[in-house]
């Protein structure tokens, strides 16, 4: 009866979960995809740039309304506030810091005072993207990468670009202006859009229908009470991961469909936008690799506009400030803040420890993969692989621990603490142990 | 010769009474809660030795042994939940010291309390079995394929909704079996089956919706949703409300069939989710060991309220209560310590405790 029950389960999974999930996934996004496509096609009509910007603003407004209804005013308000600051400070050379502080105040006020948590939580993805776009534009203006304050319609076109307004990702202002030039329709463009769309639906299915039933239905491991807790934590973690990949691939789809997300070398055009690298997260070399592979555009943004600017205060401070900025962008959720801060410490300690081990052992055991021409003496010995493998297992454990309590709704502080207590604060203790070890081998 | 004849007659009579009593008590399977953990509840021979099961239930036990652990769990849930819901009433689901009739003979008298326990029992079996399915502890069951389409709230069902239909079907098979074995033409089995079904309906009408958020970094632009069972405490609370509004009925012939209709013709016929009872309840005031009623002597009561069910005059059946002083140690001045525990001081306070007079 065992095999029959398994067959029965998978049969019911197909009709009861896979089908409804795909249906629901497409049902909620098909209009967004259609508007992106219409926008792309209309830009190919040879319209003046003014009308191109205007058309994407209209499309962006409509999709915001589709997803958030009247609550979209908060996103609109944020963008108007940003443009006002940029315009008023157009002769200043400190627009970046000033705008950052303004946005921070706006987000804090919104979080604490202006509306109920559920609504704010729903929109914070879009708010985050708007904030990142505005901040990057301000800093680029300060540095001269963008030579003058854009016109209102250009600014709004950038902010409400229909390809990135809902699911992201952040793109730079210059990338947006490149997209407005409107590249030719091509098979590779279309294939990129379709493939990303298929990948996003696959990830949604894994998040909804595979991860929650991984043990014992898909992998027949039952485990005792202790192991059961960790298996369940891994299921939750995996479900959260693939929810993120779903959104990332969806963002790739909408961005590409709307005509952005390409790189150009001479006459060679590649539609190669990449937001997340699932394989690097699920089979990690290190937590550093996980962090950058989770969301590449955000990683790039944080590196360019936070980390490098904070590096003058020291690398540890820069890392903590980067994670703090990331937490603030995600809204004042204790849970996300706690996870990101913990992640910051884990990442920093692993990085410095591996750097030290690499120097002592003269081996390729750094957080990032060595280029093929590095100077280390030991590269492919068995013990080098063992050390790297150990750190990979540690990363898997950290990921399970940190992802274990992502829930449909944000939990309160006590829930996060309760979940980590259930898992005996394992990652925190391990990180502390590694730090002690690092101090010992200095 | 007279002596021999007298002994034989007495023996036969006793045997007949025991047999009738055994057959009549449909909630005897709740005695599974009294078995020690190590006692098996599946397998052909162990099933036959479970005294609380009816012959039909023994058959189910042998045929579907993998589910019986859930049934044992259900019996524990019933006793705990019943004692919680009735904690402030005269009858507080006290259990008998021993034997297969866990709550005593009050379960056999067609009372309102019996109605509640029957409903709660069938609900507990459905919940425990469904939970076993969801956790992969039981083979032969998986997701509930009937939950699909668009919900009234406007989102599409997806994900594996708890397979309640499997649990409900098993509950109907197992819990209703002793009633059907008695025939459907007398009042008691009809009452019990009605109340069993009301218990299962209490779950169906209180299913809850859970959703997963998908959005940039865990925000909620897009959601997928599915149904889950309510916590059993909620089921207990719903049935307690039904208990408070239960309808007294009597057996009435309708054409060639018999049905339970309200004793008071002014009252509308009960809906399928209402509880029904055939006989008024005793007052539960005095000790009555034969019926498994401990009475309220010695119970703590609420000295400050005359209207609450645990008010002293109500609970103690009149003015027979007294007040005493007691010193209690309570936690106070609790503070959160970083990281991460709560520390409290121990404070002594004198409180007034009211108890029913012996």
Automatic annotation (TrEMBL), chain A:
<keyword id="KW-0812">Transmembrane</keyword>
<dbReference type="InterPro" id="IPR004299">
    <property type="entry name" value="MBOAT_fam"/>
</dbReference>
<feature type="transmembrane region" description="Helical">
    <location>
        <begin position="155"/>
        <end position="173"/>
    </location>
</feature>
<dbReference type="InterPro" id="IPR049941">
    <property type="entry name" value="LPLAT_7/PORCN-like"/>
</dbReference>
<dbReference type="GO" id="GO:0061355">
    <property type="term" value="P:Wnt protein secretion"/>
</dbReference>
<keyword id="KW-0472">Membrane</keyword>
<feature type="transmembrane region" description="Helical">
    <location>
        <begin position="59"/>
        <end position="86"/>
    </location>
</feature>
<dbReference type="Pfam" id="PF03062">
    <property type="entry name" value="MBOAT"/>
</dbReference>
<feature type="transmembrane region" description="Helical">
    <location>
        <begin position="334"/>
        <end position="353"/>
    </location>
</feature>
<dbReference type="GO" id="GO:1990698">
    <property type="term" value="F:palmitoleoyltransferase activity"/>
</dbReference>
<feature type="transmembrane region" description="Helical">
    <location>
        <begin position="423"/>
        <end position="441"/>
    </location>
</feature>
<feature type="transmembrane region" description="Helical">
    <location>
        <begin position="310"/>
        <end position="328"/>
    </location>
</feature>
<keyword id="KW-0256">Endoplasmic reticulum</keyword>
<keyword id="KW-0012">Acyltransferase</keyword>
<keyword id="KW-0808">Transferase</keyword>
<dbReference type="GO" id="GO:0060027">
    <property type="term" value="P:convergent extension involved in gastrulation"/>
</dbReference>
<feature type="transmembrane region" description="Helical">
    <location>
        <begin position="98"/>
        <end position="115"/>
    </location>
</feature>
<feature type="transmembrane region" description="Helical">
    <location>
        <begin position="382"/>
        <end position="403"/>
    </location>
</feature>
<dbReference type="GO" id="GO:0005789">
    <property type="term" value="C:endoplasmic reticulum membrane"/>
</dbReference>
<protein>
    <submittedName>
        <fullName>Porcupine O-acyltransferase</fullName>
        <ecNumber>2.3.1.250</ecNumber>
    </submittedName>
</protein>
<keyword id="KW-1133">Transmembrane helix</keyword>
TrEMBL record, chain B:
<keyword id="KW-0272">Extracellular matrix</keyword>
<dbReference type="InterPro" id="IPR043158">
    <property type="entry name" value="Wnt_C"/>
</dbReference>
<keyword id="KW-0964">Secreted</keyword>
<dbReference type="GO" id="GO:0005576">
    <property type="term" value="C:extracellular region"/>
</dbReference>
<dbReference type="GO" id="GO:0048513">
    <property type="term" value="P:animal organ development"/>
</dbReference>
<protein>
    <recommendedName>
        <fullName>Protein Wnt</fullName>
    </recommendedName>
</protein>
<dbReference type="GO" id="GO:0016055">
    <property type="term" value="P:Wnt signaling pathway"/>
</dbReference>
<dbReference type="InterPro" id="IPR005817">
    <property type="entry name" value="Wnt"/>
</dbReference>
<keyword id="KW-0449">Lipoprotein</keyword>
<keyword id="KW-1015">Disulfide bond</keyword>
<dbReference type="Pfam" id="PF00110">
    <property type="entry name" value="wnt"/>
</dbReference>
<dbReference type="InterPro" id="IPR018161">
    <property type="entry name" value="Wnt_CS"/>
</dbReference>
<comment type="similarity">
    <text>Belongs to the Wnt family.</text>
</comment>
<comment type="function">
    <text>Ligand for members of the frizzled family of seven transmembrane receptors.</text>
</comment>
<dbReference type="GO" id="GO:0005102">
    <property type="term" value="F:signaling receptor binding"/>
</dbReference>
<keyword id="KW-0732">Signal</keyword>
<keyword id="KW-0879">Wnt signaling pathway</keyword>
<keyword id="KW-0217">Developmental protein</keyword>
<feature type="signal peptide">
    <location>
        <begin position="1"/>
        <end position="26"/>
    </location>
</feature>
């Amino acid at each position: 009866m065992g095999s029959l029950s398994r067959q029965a389960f998978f049969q019911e999974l197909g009709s009861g979960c896979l089908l409804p999930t795909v249906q629901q996934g497409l049902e909620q996004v098909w209009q967004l995809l259609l508007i992106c496509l219409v926008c792309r096609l209309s830009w190919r009509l040879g319209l003046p740039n003014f009308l191109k910007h205007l058309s994407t603003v209209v499309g962006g407004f409509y999709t915001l309304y589709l997803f958030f209804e009247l609550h979209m005013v908060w996103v609109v308000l944020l963008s108007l506030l940003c443009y006002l600051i940029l315009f008023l400070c157009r002769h200043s050379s400190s627009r970046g810091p000033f705008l950052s502080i303004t946005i921070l105040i706006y987000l804090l006020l919104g979080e604490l005072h202006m509306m109920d948590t559920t609504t704010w939580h729903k929109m914070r993805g879009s708010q985050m993207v708007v904030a990142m776009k505005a901040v990057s534009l301000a800093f680029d203006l300060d540095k001269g990468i963008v030579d003058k304050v854009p016109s209102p319609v250009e600014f709004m076109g950038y902010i409400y670009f229909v390809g990135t307004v809902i699911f992201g990702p952040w793109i730079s202002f210059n990338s947006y202006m490149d997209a407005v030039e409107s590249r030719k329709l091509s098979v590779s463009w279309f294939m990129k859009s379709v493939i990303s769309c298929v990948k996003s639906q696959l990830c949604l299915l894994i998040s909804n229908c595979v991860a929650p039933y991984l043990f014992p239905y898909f992998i027949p491991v039952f485990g005792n009470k202790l192991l059961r807790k960790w298996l369940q934590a891994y299921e939750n973690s995996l479900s959260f991961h693939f929810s993120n990949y779903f959104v990332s691939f969806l963002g790739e789809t909408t961005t590409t469909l709307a005509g952005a997300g390409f790189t150009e070398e001479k006459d060679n055009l590649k539609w190669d936008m990449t937001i997340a690298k699932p394989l690097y997260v699920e089979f990690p070399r290190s937590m550093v690799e996980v962090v950058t592979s989770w969301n590449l555009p955000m990683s790039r943004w944080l590196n360019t506009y936070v980390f490098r600017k904070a590096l003058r205060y020291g690398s540890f401070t820069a890392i903590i400030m980067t994670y703090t900025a990331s937490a603030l962008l995600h809204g004042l959720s204790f849970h996300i803040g706690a996870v990101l801060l913990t992640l910051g410490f884990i990442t920093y300690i692993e990085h410095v420890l591996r750097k030290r081990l690499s120097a002592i052992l003269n081996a390729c055991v750094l957080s990032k993969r060595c280029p093929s021409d590095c100077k280390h003496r030991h590269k492919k010995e068995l013990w080098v692989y063992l050390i790297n493998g150990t750190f990979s297992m540690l990363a898997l454990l950290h990921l399970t621990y940190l992802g274990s309590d992502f829930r449909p709704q944000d939990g309160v502080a006590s829930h996060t603490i309760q979940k980590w207590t259930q898992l005996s604060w394992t990652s925190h203790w391990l990180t502390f142990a590694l730090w002690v070890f690092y101090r010992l081998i200095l | 010769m007279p002596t021999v004849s007298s002994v034989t007659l007495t023996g036969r009579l006793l045997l007949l009474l025991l047999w009738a009593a055994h057959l009549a008590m449909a909630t005897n399977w709740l005695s599974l809660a009294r078995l020690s953990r190590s006692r098996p509840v599946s397998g052909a021979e162990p099933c036959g030795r479970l005294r609380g099961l009816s012959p039909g239930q023994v058959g189910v036990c042998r045929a579907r042994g993998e589910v019986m652990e859930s049934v044992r769990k259900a019996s524990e849930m019933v006793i705990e939940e019943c004692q919680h819901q009735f904690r402030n009433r005269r009858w507080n689901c006290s259990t008998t010291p021993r034997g297969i009739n866990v709550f005593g003979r009050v379960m056999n008298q067609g009372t309102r309390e019996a109605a509640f326990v029957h409903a709660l029992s069938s609900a507990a079996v459905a919940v425990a079995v469904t939970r076993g399915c969801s956790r992969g502890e039981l083979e032969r069951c998986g997701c509930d394929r009937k939950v699909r389409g668009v919900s009234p709230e406007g989102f599409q069902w997806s994900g594996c909704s708890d397979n309640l239909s499997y649990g409900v079907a098993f509950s109907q098979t197992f819990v209703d079996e002793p009633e059907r074995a008695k025939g459907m033409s007398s009042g008691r089995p009809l009452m019990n089956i009605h109340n069993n079904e009301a218990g299962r309906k209490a779950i169906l009408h209180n299913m809850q919706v859970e959703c997963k958020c998908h959005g940039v970094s865990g925000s909620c632009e897009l959601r997928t949703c599915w149904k889950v069972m309510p916590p059993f405490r909620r089921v207990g609370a719903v049935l307690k409300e039904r208990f408070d509004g239960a309808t007294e009925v009597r057996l009435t012939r309708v054409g060639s069939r018999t049905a339970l209709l309200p004793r008071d013709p002014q009252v509308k016929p009960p809906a399928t989710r209402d509880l029904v009872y055939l006989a008024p309840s005793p007052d539960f005031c005095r000790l009555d060991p034969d019926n498994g009623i401990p009475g309220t002597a010695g119970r703590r009561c609420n000295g400050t309220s005359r209207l609450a069910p645990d008010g002293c005059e109500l609970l103690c059946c009149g003015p027979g209560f007294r007040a005493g002083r007691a010193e209690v140690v309570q936690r106070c001045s609790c503070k959160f310590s970083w990281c991460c525990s709560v520390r409290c001081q121990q404070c002594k306070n004198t409180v007034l405790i009211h108890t029913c007079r012996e």
